[in-house]
Design a protein that fits this description.
Rossmann fold; alpha+beta; Glutamine Phosphoribosylpyrophosphate, subunit 1, domain 1; 6-stranded antiparallel β-sheet; single chain; 4 domains
Length: about 625
């Protein structure tokens, strides 16, 4: 696991490239390397995982005409090497990085179809005088890039490094009002856009080439929900177990200590189960313990570890909210409103004290229909005949009697409300706690922008049913721009590598082929995974309800974070007031609750935006 940077620009002093790499040293504290060739340069910071002594980067091909820097892991590198050797390629190291060089020599830009992993890599082709940069299927590893003022190209794993390169190439980074507008609905700037007008992210499942003049990008993979399996349910259960077992198997390859993050949920329990089948009683699992009994899953996780016969270490999570918040603002580089980043950073720091690599259950909810919004989508498909006025009236009545947003009645109210909305509005209402276009148009004080819902409509899912649309957009919007960003930055800030077996793209393609009635039954989410591991995992895990990685946000905002809120948002000089109306800011600070909205989340999102503007905007 590493951090990379590079470009095709006017020649830069080596000290500048080193400075950019130092900005992302946390991603790779063990080593660094760089290479310049005419106007091209590539560099990296390395966290040593595979071939500790021989994997120094850049790595070069046999005649030193092609070099590569790499962030991530190629999990199937062991399987790829024999064929490449048979084709005449000579390996100098035991690292997965070198596989990339020889695949490029053999297949050029078509090489990505052979890879199973999480990756962002840059190849400097000194024969053709071009850069080739690629990103993994789901976008677990980031690539930010910008065209320079002189028409060149710079790229990096994080904006911290890109800012250094931008400054030295005379490339001014301008805050995007459109990104702020979208943030108010999605809680993040949605990829491929960023918080800066002139910076983009390479899309997942994509590569780009640059030869000093022409920038070419192409997608080699995208989610596809159109091809549905006709296999009997019993065979599907066997196949999903086999695919998960293989995904875990290839992710256990490591030359450094490795463990599993084990919560009380089914996804991480499945990963721990499959890892235990291979590693046995020596497998280390780690569980977070929090003080709030309603949020604490440590007891379930401990019993699961005992049932699997593996080691379990409890990591007590104690967080200073204000201090962690400031760290998150600086570390995440862009406004980021998901409050679960706070415990994610905390657990990454704790786990790093024990291991260098952790496996997790990320992606299980998005790929196997684990959220109540997936139930809502499946039900909504058969209720489009309900008049909008009737739907709104029903939602109003249910809201009035619901004991809380997460209660059964609160859920029913939100589901009823979606029937009065367009498909893109439905996605926002089900998925986020933020604002719709109809909310924002009255409070926006920035310049002209396009509605966020219009952008959502461009994320065209390859599928037909309402559940397909919801799940496909989950993968391409929230998973990509929020959840994967959260975990990449949280783990890398602690120099910890996180691996997600349930996001193996072959497993994902199979999951996308499953019909709705295999994924959901009645009011039960993630039915297929529950059935696949029934009898293999404790019943309390199989029957357990979905719990988010939550924090007592409302309490913190009223107490621990209240001074920060008053010092920033409450001030008439607050920078967010350039973009949203004073009345909206004042209402949130005063504690007034918007109807059918999560007040704590809206206030937190605005606070994070304000802190980012103070830290990074000119």
């Amino acid at each position: 696991m590493c951090g990379i940077a590079g470009g095709y620009t006017q020649p830069l002093a080596e000290a500048i490239i080193v400075q950019a790499l130092e900005a992302i040293k946390h991603r790779g504290p063990d080593d660094y390397g760089l290479h310049q060739h005419q106007q091209m340069f590539i560099g990296m910071r390395r966290l040593s995982i595979i071939d500790l002594s021989g994997g120094h980067q850049p790595i070069y091909n046999e005649d030193d005409t092609i070099g590569v820097v790499f962030n991530g892991e190629i999990y199937n590198y062991v399987e790829l090497i024999p064929d490449l050797i048979a084709r005449g390629h000579v390996f100098k190291t035991r690292s997965d990085t070198e596989v990339l060089l020889h695949l490029y020599e053999e297949y050029g830009t078509d090489m990505c179809r052979f890879l199973r992993g999480m990756f962002a890599f840059a190849i400097m082709d000194m024969r053709q005088n071009r850069l080739f940069v690629a990103r993994d299927h789901y976008g677990k590893k980031p690539v930010y890039y910008a065209r320079t003022a002189a028409g060149g190209l710079i790229f990096a794993s994080e904006l911290k490094a890109l800012r250094v390169l931008a400054r030295e190439t005379g490339t001014r980074l301008l805050v995007s009002e459109q990104a702020i507008y979208d943030y108010l609905s999605l809680g993040v700037p949605p990829q491929p856009t960023t918080i800066y007008q002139n910076v983009a992210m390479l899309m997942p499942g994509s590569w780009m080439t640059f030869d000093g003049a022409a920038l070419t990008t192409e997608r080699y993979w995208r989610p596809d929900y159109t091809r549905k399996t006709t296999l009997p349910y019993a065979e599907v259960l066997e196949q999903v177990r086999a695919l998960i077992a293989e995904a875990v198997h290839i992710r256990l390859r490591s030359d450094v200590p490795l463990g599993v993050l084990l919560s009380g949920g089914i996804d991480s329990s499945i990963v721990a189960y499959q890892a235990a089948q291979e590693v046995g009683a020596t497998l280390q699992t780690f569980t977070v313990q929090v003080d709030d009994p309603a949020l604490n899953e440590a007891d379930v996780a401990r019993r699961t570890a005992q049932a699997l016969g593996v080691k379990n270490t409890i990591l007590p999570m104690q967080v200073d909210p204000a201090e962690t918040l400031q760290f998150i603002v600086r570390q995440y580089d862009q406004p980021f409103s998901d409050p679960s980043a706070i415990p994610s950073v905390a657990i990454s720091r704790l786990a790093r004290q024990h291991v260098t690599v952790v496996l997790n259950g990320d992606g299980g909810d998005e790929l196997f229909a684990g959220y109540r919004r997936h139930l809502a989508a499946a039900v909504t498909e058969n209720l489009d005949w309900v008049p909008a006025g009737v739907a709104r009236a029903a939602a109003s009545v249910l809201n009035a009697v619901a004991p809380g947003r997460r209660s059964a009645l609160g859920y029913a109210a939100r589901m009823a409300r979606t029937l009065a909305y367009t498909r893109s509005e439905r996605y926002l209402v089900r998925t986020t706690d933020a604002l719709l276009e109809r909310d924002k148009r009255d409070i926006w004080r920035g310049g002209p922008v396009r509605p966020t819902e219009d952008w959502i409509e461009t994320v065209n899912p390859a599928g037909s049913g309402e559940l397909d649309v919801q799940m496909s957009r989950d993968v391409q919007i929230i998973l990509l721009s929020a959840l994967l960003v959260k975990m990449d930055i949280a783990t890398m800030s602690a120099s910890l590598e996180g691996r997600s077996p349930l996001m193996d793209y072959k497993l994902g393609e199979f999951a996308m082929s499953l019909p709705a009635h295999y994924l959901l039954k009645g009011q039960t989410t993630k039915t297929l995974l529950r059935d696949a591991y029934r009898g293999r995992l404790p019943d309390e895990v199989i029957a357990g309800q979905k719990r988010g990685f939550e924090i007592p946000l409302a309490h913190w905002l009223e107490h621990d974070l209240r001074p920060l809120v008053m010092d920033t948002l409450a001030a008439k000089s607050a920078r967010v007031r350039q973009y949203v109306a004073d009345e909206y800011v004042d209402r949130l600070v005063a504690g007034e609750i918007m109807q059918e909205r999560n007040h704590a989340y809206l206030l937190y999102a605005l606070l994070m935006l304000e802190l980012w503007l103070r830290e990074f905007s000119a």
